[in-house]
Amino acid sequence: TIEQGKTLSESRKEVDVSVRMLEFFAGEAGRLIGEFDEADRSDLVTYYTREPLGVVLVLTPWNYPLSIPVWKIAPALMAGNTVIFKPASYTPIIGLRLVEILHRAGLPRGVVNCVTGSGAEAGELLIKDERIKAITFTGSTEIGLRIASIVSPRLTRIQLEMGGKNACIVLDDANLNVFMEGFLSATYGVAGQKCTATSRLIVTKNVRDKVMDRILELVKKIKVGNGLREDVDVGPVVSESQMESILHYIELGKSQGAKLITGGSRLTGEEYDKGFFIQPAIFDEVTPEMDIAQEEIFGPVLSVITVETFDQALDVLNNSKYGLSASIFTNDLSKAFKFIREAKVGVALVNMHTNYNEPHMPFGGIKMSGFGLKEQGRKALEFFTEVKSVYIRP
To answer: What domains, with CATH codes, occur in the chain?
Structure first.
């Protein structure tokens, strides 16, 4: 909270998630044994095993400065690799403390090495080092593409978890009480600065007014302030440049014809002058081609798009260069499964919000949201290992 700005409750949850991740991967360590397959020939024994890659580079963002490093470092270690870890330049202390905790827990020094500094200097130097056998990165699509362009000539293995423009579809038959349960966290948690945040709300016209009344009532009650205060719902954004980027998109939305119905301004005075606080915003009358409906804003801004039909909602959902997560609220199972089949995303949720995930489930996007093998779950261990096929003739 002190270094990143998120609320205390969000920080506590992140610590809990990190512990669960460590417990999960500790349990998976003994499963890296490969698999026996019956050979075609009776005089052969065949199997495959998994072996570590070597030195792995872990590059992480500032929005989840503990949990994201953990879910990258833990499987890398369980697979037998050593790690060079560069935390985001906004949150280096948390990264250093994490490595300190690992050392105190008994991890030999040199197995995980923390390097601080800017991405342009320290990060670039590490990415170009040919001794690095794999790079796992979470951050912007722009930086992810740059990493890919640098390492592709030498075929370094990469795992890129990048941007998102996640949509939530609400159909006429949706249970609005269920929809409202996680709405605040999904849309405005961590001040909207998370890749799985709901930034597009696609609503069918017959339920639109009910949805708008309920979310507007809730958003107007949001308490923005110092994340160290227990009564605060939304903390500051991480930096002045991040705030300016968010405010730019808000002005762009207004200039393109979207209707700003609440929030969207910088808060000033008293404690607000000591940080970068933005009143959570809702845009109505948004059309799919507007910049605020296409670009990742990474801030507390929701764009509401009204549609006539379920099929139109799916078209709007998929009209994006991103494909991380998407959710739908409906009581119609046939529509739910059609959504699962046709949503062009890596994570699909039914009657749940876009920010939900569990340690045992693979995580990652498609299109411009992700590249490479998935994170989390048993699939995470595949990225950090090489497969060796073995044939034995006794």
So the answer is: 8-162+369-392 (3.40.605.10), 166-350 (3.40.309.10)
